[in-house]
Write a structure and sequence with these properties.
Order of helices and strands: EEEHEE
Number of strands: 5
Number of domains: 1
Strand order of the largest sheet: 4-3-2-1-5
Protein name: DUF2187 domain-containing protein
Number of helices: 1
Strand content: 35-45%
Structural class: mainly beta
Length: about 70
């Protein structure tokens, strides 16, 4: 199982909870779950994400770590 750190960008996808993928930032790592702040989401999930106050608790197996590549100076 992958370890996540606070502040890390992740991709979350859950067919049961949301229609599309979510990009978020890890705000807290719990014993068996990860709490993420939603930064970007599929437009049809707008109401559901708003109901969740832009915070989702997810199992680490449903998350994928994202790398940020800086092509600038």
């Amino acid at each position: 199982m992958q370890k996540f750190q606070q502040g890390e960008l992740v991709r979350y996808e859950s067919a049961e909870e949301l229609q599309g993928p979510v990009i978020g930032k890890v705000i807290q790592v719990l014993q068996s779950n990860v709490v993420i702040e939603v930064l970007n989401f599929y437009f049809k999930d707008r109401q559901r994400v708003s109901e969740l106050n832009f915070v989702i608790t997810a199992c680490p197996t449903e998350l994928k770590s994202l790398r940020v590549i800086n092509y600038g100076n």
